[in-house]
TrEMBL record:
Residues 12-269 form the Nucleotidyl transferase domain. Keywords: Nucleotidyltransferase, Transferase. This is UTP--glucose-1-phosphate uridylyltransferase. The gene is galU. Its EC number is 2.7.7.9. The keyword Translocase does not apply. It catalyses: alpha-D-glucose 1-phosphate + UTP + H(+) = UDP-alpha-D-glucose + diphosphate. Belongs to the UDPGP type 2 family. GO terms for molecular function: UTP:glucose-1-phosphate uridylyltransferase activity. Signal peptide: none annotated. Gene3D superfamilies: Spore Coat Polysaccharide Biosynthesis Protein SpsA, Chain A. GO terms for biological process: UDP-alpha-D-glucose metabolic process. SUPFAM superfamilies: Nucleotide-diphospho-sugar transferases.
Amino acid sequence: MRKKVTKAIFPVAGLGTRFLPATKSVPKEIMTLVDRPLIQYAIDEARAAGIKEFIFVTSRGKSALEDYFDHSPILEQELRKKGKTELLALLKDTNMDSGAIAYIRQHRALGLGHAVWCARRLIADEAFAVILPDDVIAAETPCLKQMVEAYAETGGNMVAAMEVPPEKASAYGVLDVQEDMGSIVSVKGMVEKPKREEAPSNLAVIGRYILGPSVLNNLNKMRAGAGGEIQLTDAIAADIGTANGVYGYRFRGQRFDCGSKAGFLQATVAFALARDDLRDDLSAYLREVVNMSKAAE
Ligand code: UTP
């Protein structure tokens, strides 16, 4: 039987320039979607998929992230004294078992591939997951759990994939599909941020991966690719045609690009509308706004 995937890398060392000036002092991953930071959604998804070891690739200025996962004895004591058991329960999700979480520094933002490579010594010889917290996925079965189940069948490297309109493909890594088997596709090529006319398909890679240790070996040899960064896509693509292979997984769910302002706002609305305590007020407000803007036209 294939060994379970129990380690996940969370690359969070990017500069987050699209959210300046906020990200000057607040890590992007700590920005809140309704009332939880982005990173909490990523951690919950990883836990649901059976991940036991959480490896963060961080950089200067991200200490708020480390604090977020620590116990907060004074706050907890206060809440206990006041009998606020519901709030205490909420804090529980933010705590990690001792030794379950590790932080590695990426000293320069040389790209996602480089960030993953920075964690190589903690991975050793086993498959691992990579989660980009700015891709938030609303799904009945959490996306990484779906992928872990699919991976148990295929082995190899697996990337989460979704259909995008042709004019958007150049913002993603795009799959060249060999065989389409429905939710799983086998891959014969991958291109990072192709020109519109050169995109091999409309299947774009988003921020969930299950990768074999061979990808770390490939990263050992990598040089900067598209945009002058060391690309994870290139290191995964180097496994195509080997015994490991690469598969795309069409996940069931809705992905929000919380690395962009528009995506973050859409996610905020969608996640708030999914909440019993916020739905009625927010939808009444949204209706009002839509009516006002129609009347102004
Ligand atoms: P992005 O491409 O979104 O870059 O990285 P960014 O720096 O976070 O944001 P912008 O574009 O400047 O606004 C995708 C993911 O890869 C991580 C980021 O933290 C994010 O989770 N990353 C990127 C690194 O960890 N290191 C890098 O060198 C680059």
